[in-house]
Write a structure and sequence with these properties.
binds magnesium ion, eight-stranded mixed barrel, five-stranded antiparallel beta sheet, alpha/beta, elongated, about 600 residues, TIM Barrel, Alpha-Beta Plaits, Beta-Lactamase, binds ligand C2E
């Protein structure tokens, strides 16, 4: 079709250059035909090129142009109207606009002497970038590039930047963008809710079943969350086991409460992941715009604070943000900052509470209980600062201090006196726990049999295998292991079978409820019998009255601890207590 003799401009013809190969020979170079040059260049371009005159009639185009738009050779002839080409393109799906309007817009640009840039996305997913430049005399030259691949890659990158790879939910960035957008609408009236969600005990799933199962659980949770929402709402994964939801069109706070209940209902249904049955629960914090804030940061922070409140209240709950939460969070931050300095500033002290044998009414030993003398506010209860020490990891150095101090202070007590020390689950994560215990004993030359380590069921719920290994190593040192606060966790009896404990300490809530009915009594009695059968000591915690004491003795408990006998006392009063053996309550009971 290419014709050397055809000068496209002079003849007004159409030049098409099907796959033109360079046909330049050295001897021809000097006399190289301008048309051949044009033919070679245009025929090898990866872009489509077309040129129209002032009447919108085709002057020339290359083969690539014909191919891109699916045109036919019969149609694309010199002098053919752009309107006809576009109509044909519409029919074959290679042009998605309105031909007349498009031509009009080209004419306007040409008249204004402006270059026109267009991107056309076609229904079939393809996309063309079209650049039209005006020519002298009213015509124009257009280049056409197929940008489908580039556009898809750009879209993928943009998607990845705004979505979480595991669940394909929007990530924090997209959540913020949507929240900003929705808040602008709320600025004109109405309200929205931000829900901050966190799976309860997700870490246990990861630690015990492994990360692939944890990931599998997160994916199903993401699906269930999606299904709880309307199209206008957004659920995002913020990372780990944290999610956030923007609920739009909230008429009253109860709407957000109803959604939270729906979500819990869905999330607490059992999961089957790779053959593992898993149950999960979720805690939710809610903030409402505009009353709790009008910018994304503020609303998310307040919802997070409400979530913290939900967790503190026992998990598996939803809580609305309340301004007092802000104040409480400040108190907590303050406490945390002071706690970081407490060890170096010698603000800790150990108090000791006696344990009494219920058969002969003699003191068998003492439990070391940590006290924090905080200069700002006086004594702080361990119940208030141990959880913070655990969250921050400070419990590791503090726990080591407790061990060493308890061994040192009790070293001069009579040999038969045991010393009990509480261990936090977090201390089991430190690889050197066994070495620390060993060196605390060796430093003061203490017989390992005198040391009792109290652990709670929660230790066994986490990372069971390595925990059991550590427990066995501790037992090999000769140290005794006690199960503390028994009955407050889950499936307690199975934990008793997982390790040969030396002692069970029955939680004080059971002792407290003894008078309230038959059930607590039956439980205490069953635990005492079980302990006796397994040759374990059964210690009743929190004994405050003579009646409790009598009942506990009658069901076969072997040891007690409680205010009825003595509160925890400072170290310097212990020798006097042992000396005096003032077993006030016990004597009257005996
Ligand atoms: P726990 O190990 O169960 O300790 C017994 C708690 O019950 C102590 O509270 C004790 O003062 C209290 N108690 C004893 N007798 C009675 C009674 O008759 N009535 C009532 N109502 N309470 C009684 P405390 O000292 O406030 O300790 C609370 C918890 O803090 C401990 O519970 C233990 O879990 C933790 N803790 C204390 N010291 C340490 C420590 O050094 N390390 C770790 N990891 N945890 C500690
Ligand atoms: Mg204890
Ligand atoms: Mg206890």
């Amino acid at each position: 079709m290419a014709n050397k003799n055809l000068d496209p401009v002079r003849a007004g013809g159409v030049v098409q250059f099907p796959n033109a190969k360079p046909r330049v020979r050295k001897k021809d170079l000097a006399v190289l035909d301008q048309t051949l040059l044009l033919e070679t260049v245009l025929g090898n371009l990866s872009q489509g090129v077309s040129m129209f005159d002032a009447d919108s009639l085709l002057v020339f185009c290359n083969q690539r142009y014909v191919d891109m738009y699916g045109l036919s050779a019969g149609l694309v002839k010199p002098g053919c109207a752009l309107a006809d080409i576009l109509k044909h393109s519409v029919a074959v799906g290679s042009f998605a606009g309105n031909p007349d309007e498009y031509i009009e817009s080209i004419r306007d640009a040409v008249a204004a002497g402006k270059t026109k840039d267009d991107t056309f996305e076609l229904g079939n997913g393809r996309a063309f970038a079209v650049v039209t430049k005006p020519l002298e005399g009213g015509g124009w030259l257009t280049t056409h590039e197929d940008i489908t691949k580039r556009l898809r890659a750009d879209e993928r990158i943009a998607h990845m930047a705004r979505h979480d790879a595991l669940t394909n939910l929007p990530n924090r960035m997209l959540l913020r963008e949507r929240l900003e957008y929705e808040l602008r609408r709320v600025g004109r009236g109405g309200s929205l809710a931000v829900l901050y969600l966190d799976l309860d005990h997700f870490k246990t799933v990861n630690d015990t079943l492994g990360h692939p199962i944890g990931d599998g659980l997160l994916k199903v949770v993401a699906d269930r969350l999606r299904h709880c929402l309307r199209d206008a709402d957004t659920v995002a994964r913020l990372g780990g086991d944290e999610f956030a939801i923007i609920m739009t069109g909230v008429e009253q706070p109860t709407d957000a409460a109803a959604l939270s209940r729906r979500i819990r209902e869905s999330i607490t249904k059992p999961y089957e992941i790779d053959g593992h049955q898993i149950v999960a629960d979720i805690s939710i914090g809610i903030s409402i715009a505009p009353s709790d804030g009008t910018d994304p940061d503020h609303l998310l922070k307040n919802a997070d604070m409400a979530l913290y409140g939900a967790k503190a209240d026992g998990r598996g709950l939803y809580r609305f943000f309340e301004p007092e939460m802000d104040a409480r969070a400040k108190v907590r931050r303050d406490l945390e900052m002071d706690l970081r300095k407490a060890l170096a500033s010698n603000e800790f002290e150990l108090f000791y509470q006696p344990l009494v044998n219920l058969q002969n009414n003699e003191i068998t030993g003492f439990e070391a209980l940590l006290r924090w003398n905080r200069p700002k506010s006086g004594m702080v209860s361990p119940a208030d600062f141990i959880p913070i020490a655990e969250e921050t990891g400070l419990i590791i150095p503090i726990g080591e201090w407790v061990l060493r101090t308890a061994c040192r202070q009790s070293a001069d007590w009579p040999d038969e006196m045991s010393i009990a020390v509480n261990l936090s689950p977090v201390q089991f994560k430190a690889k050197n726990l066994v070495d620390v215990v060993k060196s605390a004993l060796e430093d003061v030359n203490m017989a390992p049999q005198r040391l009792q380590l109290e652990i709670t069921e929660s230790i066994l719920m986490k990372n069971t295998f390595s925990t059991l290994q550590t427990l066995h190593k501790l037992r090999e040192l000769g140290v005794k292991i006690a199960m503390d606060d028994f009955g407050t966790g889950y499936s307690s009896l199975s934990y008793l079978r997982s390790f040969p404990f030396d002692k069970i300490k029955i939680d004080r809530s059971f002792v407290n409820d003894l008078a309230k009915g038959v059930e607590p009594l039956a439980i205490v009695s069953a635990v005492a019998t079980l302990a006796n059968n397994l040759s374990m000591t059964s210690t009743a915690e929190g004994v405050e009255t003579q009646e409790q004491l009598t009942t506990l003795q009658s069901v076969g408990c072997t040891e007690m601890q409680g205010y009825f006998f003595s509160r925890a006392l400072p170290a310097n009063e212990i020798c006097a207590l042992i000396e005096a053996k003032k077993i006030k309550g016990i004597e009257s009971a005996a």
